[in-house]
Amino acid sequence: MTVSLGQPPSSAAASVLPPAEPPEVLPDLIAGLVEDGRPVARDIALGLLRRQLGRIQGRVQRAFEAHDLSGLGAARWLAALTDGIVGAIHTYTLAQVPPAAAGAQVPPQEPGGTTEETFSLIATGGYGRGVLAPYSDIDLLFLSDAPLGPQGRRAVEFLLYLLWDLGLKVGHATRTIGECIEDARGDVTIQTALIDARFLAGNRAVHDRFQDAFLAARKASGLAPFLAAKRAERTTRHQRYGESPFLVEPHVKEGRGGLRDLQTLYWLARHAFGVQRMPELVGPESPGGGLLTPQEARSIRRAWNFLWTVRFHLHYVTGRAEERLTFDLQPVVGARMGYTRHGVQDGVERFMKHLFLTARDVVRLTRLLEPAIERASLGPPAVVPAGDAALSHAGMALADGKVLFAPDRQVGADPAIMLRLVRAARDRGLEIHPLAHRALIRNARYAVQLRDDPAANALFLDLLTGKDSPRWMRVLNEVGFLSRFIPDWARIVGLMQFDTYHVFTVEEHTIEAIGVLSALERNELNEIAPVASELIGQVQSRRALYVAVMLHDIAKGRGGDHSELGAQVALELCPRLGLSPEETETVSWLVLNHLLISATAFKRDIDDPKTILDIAETVQSPERLRLLLVLTVADMRAVGPKVWNGWKATLLRELYWRVAEVLAGGLSVPERDTRVARARAAAASLLETMAKPDLDRFLGLGYPGYWLSFDPETHARHAEMIRDAEADQAPLTVRTRVIEARSVTEVTVYCSDHPGLFSRIAGALAVAGASIVDARIHTMTNGMALDTFWVQDAAGGAFDAPHRLARLAVLIEQSLSGRLRLEQEIAKLRREPARLRAVTIPPRVVLDNHASNTHTVIEVNGRDRPGLLHAVTAAISEQGLQIASAHITTYGVRAVDVFYVKDVFGLKVENERKLASLRAALLLALGAPEVPVETGARVV
């Protein structure tokens, strides 16, 4: 297996071997605890022990942080020094509780029985392996031939209380040898801990008798039950801590590809062969006949060392046993390990890439070594002919009902057999045998020879576009084939974007997107994405669509626009894969424009005809529109479980149909007056029961923009609301409507218009805990404002709790009347967790006078926070501008808000000095340092 992890920049020279401890330290400590054969007072002993513990912990931390020790070396040294502390405490305990008094109730006939030290003090778990993290538990076993008597239990209690008073976390058990063997049979956790049992102090003969009995019990039960239990345990652990090794906030101990997975390999090897170190499995004379190559053994050592180094930094930075590498800790740990910016990649992104590559190799090593241990211990599988001539002719066989390479086939001589094996597994509904996975990992380097092989490229394209394609793409990625077969793919493996929006690394996100595409074709997302589910069956360029999804983020991490760079990669790669010139051009175009639909739907006013016409001009064909919509849905759904919701689905659906109408010739010449007249007529038809004076008054209230912004049903609701408000002479009317299908709640406010109205309503909604996702602001001909907001709760669902809706209306009234102190209330709102504050979001303001024929479009980017929309809209109002519509989008902690505005005369803002002043005010609202007003504002 080829592994190119290298060493962490600052740890390349760090030793993994603990420094030798001066021999006088432990005797000096014991001499201080026991003077002239008599133990000193407990408080004096405790003081001596505390000082010594502080010294050894400080010594390890200083050596580690000076990069004199790697994480693995520090873990070994800390365990060795802790052995000295525990040994000294054991000696002091025996002095306090005399050996004869501490004896066990040993029957006279018990072989090896003694009246002196009858229990053995044993380290188990990680401490038993001789490694210890700064804030990890110390697991101890008090082992005896027979149950301890009262004085023996008193000695155990005395020793434990000393450890606890030192502030150490101690896991402990008191068992006889027989109890250990029996408990290990019924509990795999206990059995695993005992595999690592290591003698510390006391009666070594008891320890030796236990080891003989435990070894005999393991041989009697065999590896199979233990292996099955560890696999089940691993599956449960991955489900809890992360089934992907590429989660952007990984758990370095329990997650997939973490330390626990490496430890599992060690436990299996220890159980099966009794080895103490993984290099013992190298070479033909080793147990199992050479299960590891020297290179693979070095890979295991590098992974151990790197993960332990990360873990030590996590513990020291947080001051606790923290195992999850959250966003706020990633830059700190990366900097401590010496990762700095290199080219376009930040230091933290380089650090995380190294971590993900390490996790990937742990996954590979597990697939490589675990089946080898199983077969070496349980015997080789019964390999039988494949059962059909085609499979046998292709070089395949079956074992345990799973497909693998025939024994007489050498992958190096025929590299394409790797793809044929994966296709055979897919076509026949078979699992790939673990030994075949092992062979794929070890032979992935031969994929380089297939790049220019037309037959191999056709095979790959078939796997990409065929049944269960994400499953097989993940297999090819995990074994390392994809990185060798497509060099550009290797550049995105383990690539992380340091933000809170993306849940996966780039290549894992891409495979997830292929999975969404496959699910759309199987009609599994009909309710979630009905339009895309319908359209995917209509696309003519299916192969191009799948390849475009595979390549849409292929150029991330290179600097520059990844869409433009990716389009160029597509032009070079697609012909090699066997796509026609037409398909190649389609893929390149899709990659170039894969953000067009989402950016427009969430950042632009789709009721503005120019928005629709601009997209139609770019897309030009219904087929490309269909492809782009499906690609957009796949991309968004694959980002993470919280990104997609009913509101976003609605926006995409509405945008698609409006552009499709233009492409069909429906809006080639937007006749605004005709459309307004039709909207009024449609509303009137729904209001036949309304009194004619009330109806005529309502039809005369709205400006053209109002009539083009809502459907007839909404117009009818507005008419009734306005009629009721005027009949009651109500100065303020607030109506709410939960729209479950869109996962939003519509809030409509009708009141007298005045500057800053939008800002005050936005502030009240923030205090109520509602997030605005879209807004339409209209001033009617009678001087009243009819403002509509679509809001969600913090979880991205409809804001629908009755008591919260009632409070929302009250807060709006209090805000508009001045009785609600918005700034003070917003300041009380809960701030984001510390782990998210590490993500830097530089404030940015873009002023665009080309996106709309009638409005200046303002786009602000900044860190999301409670009340941000209130602050930004207040700044816009203070500049004397009127907001016509707002489009609010959040990507993790990044807020991207777009406003369509006019000046007091109803015109675009085109004065350079006014634009500069506006930009400075918005940057200040976003939290940027105060910016001097200049005349050279940027206008797109």
Please count the helical segments.
39
How many extended strands?
17
Largest sheet entry: 8 strands, antiparallel
In which order are the strands of the major sheet placed?
10-11-13-12-16-17-15-14
Category by helix and strand content: alpha+beta
Estimate the global geometry from the Cα principal axes: globular
- Oligomeric nature of the chains: single chain
Into which percent range does the helicity of residues fall?
Answer: 40-55%
| Overall radius of gyration | 34 Å
Strand content: 5-15%
Average pLDDT figure: 86
Total domains: 4
In whole angstroms, the N-to-C terminal distance is: 51 Å
Low-confidence stretches: 1-13, 101-116, 931-940
Q: Your description of this structure?
A:
This protein has 940 residues and is of the alpha+beta class. The chain is globular, with a radius of gyration of 34 Å. The chain is built from 39 helices and 17 strands. An 8-stranded antiparallel β-sheet has the order 10-11-13-12-16-17-15-14, sandwiched between helices. Strands 5-4-3-6 form a 4-stranded mixed β-sheet. Helix 13 (347-378) crosses helix 16 (434-443), helix 27 crosses helix 29 and helix 34 (757-767) runs antiparallel to helix 35. It has 4 domains: 25-221, Beta Polymerase, domain 2 (2-Layer Sandwich); 238-380, Nucleotidyltransferases  domain 2 (Four Helix Bundle (Hemerythrin (Met), subunit A)), CATH 1.20.120; 487-663, no CATH class; 672-926, no CATH class.
